[in-house]
Design goal:
Largest sheet: 5 strands, mixed
Strand order of the largest sheet: 3-2-1-4-5
CATH architecture of the largest domain: 2-Layer Sandwich
Distance between the termini: 31 Å
Order of helices and strands: HHHEEEHEHEHEEEHEEHH
Number of strands: 10
Number of helices: 9
Number of domains: 2
């Protein structure tokens, strides 16, 4: 039976990026209401992204030598990417993510290896942020990281976007927060590096109730001052990577996104 509305190649997927930033929109475009499941849509996306990533890997692998750790974060508006070796960051980039997110991520991966004259075949680990954040951004980062990990048979470590934001601040109490639309946020509360309120999809009024007994806390935002006591997150690659390498690797086939909330389509289906 011929598959309807599948992603035949990454170009078809890219054509949708201007109007897609969450699974609900993608699900509608892919005719999810006509028998195409959420899992099938994601599998098609990942297959298209992985094919594109593998072609770049195969074309460039002769240039990529003596690398230990690749860090990738495409979760939210800014591409954070770094190459780390011998306990230091060799090179990093912070680049605004445009509609061509997959191309941009692969371009900057190439730049990391070319400018440092390293070879991806020497990579020992991949660290990737798995959300929360943009549906599309999360899937792109995870799929590229998984493709590299599969190809090289190396471990993959996932780290929360909220944790990376908290690690960027030297304040004792900090609240990394990402807008999730509809007056809701993805948020957590940290005391230094210890999480004291689990990551949540939460209304701001409910979050403030959690903070009543905490003094001198700061919000950590990625790109906008949401409240008076807000710090803008400027990723500390070395600190984040040093923290992440202590985490337990996840088998590549079990690596998944940390969305924190169900899509609107899933919520309607369960109601």
């Amino acid at each position: 039976m011929k598959e309807r509305n599948s992603f035949k190649n990454l170009g078809q997927y890219k054509a949708y990026l201007e109007i897609i930033d969450d699974f609900e929109q993608l699900y509608i475009i892919q005719q999810g209401g006509r028998g195409v499941t959420r899992k099938e849509v994601i599998e098609r996306l990942e297959s298209a992204i992985a094919k594109d990533a593998k072609s770049v890997f195969d074309a460039k692998k002769s240039l990529w030598r003596n690398i230990m750790i690749l860090y990738i974060d495409t979760c939210y508006k800014i591409l954070n990417i770094a190459l780390y070796e011998n306990q230091k960051v060799l090179l990093s980039f912070n680049q605004k993510l445009e509609n061509n997110m997959t191309d941009l991520t692969l371009i900057y991966i190439n730049k990391l290896f070319e400018q440092t004259k390293k070879d991806i075949s020497s990579l020992s680990k991949v660290i990737v942020s798995n959300g929360p954040g943009s549906f599309t951004g999360i899937r792109i980062g995870l799929t590229i990281a998984k493709t590299i990990a599969y190809a090289l048979n190396i471990p993959i470590i996932t780290i929360s976007k909220l944790t990376t934001m908290a690690l960027s601040s030297n304040s004792e109490y900090k609240v990394p927060i990402i807008s999730a639309r509809h007056s809701s946020f993805y948020a957590a509360i940290f005391k230094n590096e210890e999480i004291i309120m689990p990551e949540s999809y939460i209304q701001i009024e409910d979050l403030k109730k959690k903070l009543i007994d905490i003094n001198n806390y700061v919000y950590i935002s990625y790109d906008e001052v949401l409240f008076e006591n807000t710090e803008i997150s400027n990723v500390n690659f070395e600190k984040v990577i040093n923290y992440a390498i202590k985490l337990k690797p996840t088998p590549v086939e079990l690596v998944d996104a940390n969305y924190l909330k169900r899509t609107e389509a899933e919520e309607r289906k369960s109601s």
